[in-house]
Design a protein that fits this description.
Layout (H helix, E strand, L loop, with lengths): L3 E6 L21 H19 L4 E8 L7 H15 L1 E11 L3 H4 L2 H7 L3 E7 L3 H6 L6 H14 L2 E8 L6 H13 L4 E6 L7 H7 L8 H17 L4 E3 L2 E3 L6 H7 L4 E4 L4 E4 L2 E5 L3 H11 L3 E6 L2 H12 L6 E2 H8 L9 H9 L3 E4 L2 E4 L7 H8 L2 H5 L1
Parallel strand pairs: 1-2, 1-9, 2-3, 3-4, 4-5, 5-6
Antiparallel strand pairs: 6-8, 7-8, 10-11, 11-12, 13-15, 14-15
Helix pairs in contact: 1-2, 2-4, 7-9
Length: 383
Amino acid sequence: MARALYIHWPFCLKKCPYCDFNSHVRDTVDVSHWQQAMIADMRHEAELAGGEALQSIFFGGGTPSLMPPSLVGSLLDEAQDLWGFDENIEITLEANPSSVEASNFSDLVGAGVNRISVGIQSLKNERLEFLGRLHSASEALQALEVAQANFDRVNADFIYALPGQSISDWERDLCQAIALGTDHLSLYQLTIEPSTRFESDVRKGIFTPLKDDPAADLYAITQEMTAAAGIPAYEISNYARPRQESRHNLTYWRYQDYCGIGPGAHGRRGSLATTRHKKPENWLSAIESSGSGIDEERQLNLQEQASEAILMGLRLSEGIDLSQLEARFGIPQNELLDEGRLELHTSLGLIWQNGAQIGVTPAGMPLLDALLGDLVLEELVRA
């Protein structure tokens, strides 16, 4: 049964040039209509994946901080009625650091949100302009101050490995980010995603992305500085003080069940993967015609589930337990990973092993995609 609920709010004031998330710009949004549709989608999921109190809820987007706090509160009230809440439930909402959105932080606390994730991205105005952000560095700092005054748990998002960024540049930026005092940092390297404006810019020669080796050097510095500050990595791009990890995201990475509602939201009910219609208008039409926004429900065989569990779990510093995966999916350990390649990468210091527990070392994390492609048996991926 679902332990977590993801709610997708698809609207933004502007599409960022690096973003490949399901986000849309619309002149107007009928909040009342969307509230009814979101609740209908939620009720559909609760009928199929109810029975266990929710441990976490995450409002993602898009820009969920554009949602009226009253809408957030009504959705949380509905979720509590449908599932019930664990006494220590984590309820996170992603926010942009504009003054308008920050003014809602107190009301969001009143609505039930207890963790905020602020998309700062940079504390340099020229970098923010390059990234297409609408806020300034001073606005970001002011919004974060308001967030920390209202929420006990705050995450700050930053993007690094930007074109031309040097080690000394990033050391100064990261030092400033750490000094902000949040209990959690999400530090993402800039990647050029397909069908984004940045992909078009790179193709036209407008800018050149940072090459892999300098980016790997920045990643190594990130590991060292965050660990020294008591905010070590627990996932490839996420860093937290002890017991301040995102419990919602751990649900994904530990391959546990979760419901996803709203346009483009993904979910998993046992062996069934669910996907909602991406375009807001199509999602609304599906709600009206069938009572849910589901576009596809796909049955995953045991091999697919095991492969996904490995791909997600090896993102974590805690790694995976092959004996648990064998018990869960009924697939012998020697049919999960290529044992020869596992021994090779362990000898190279890219993988660590402790009995049936294995994980990727800090030295191996920059090579994660290549390692996964080398370790997971083709038979498992192709099944």
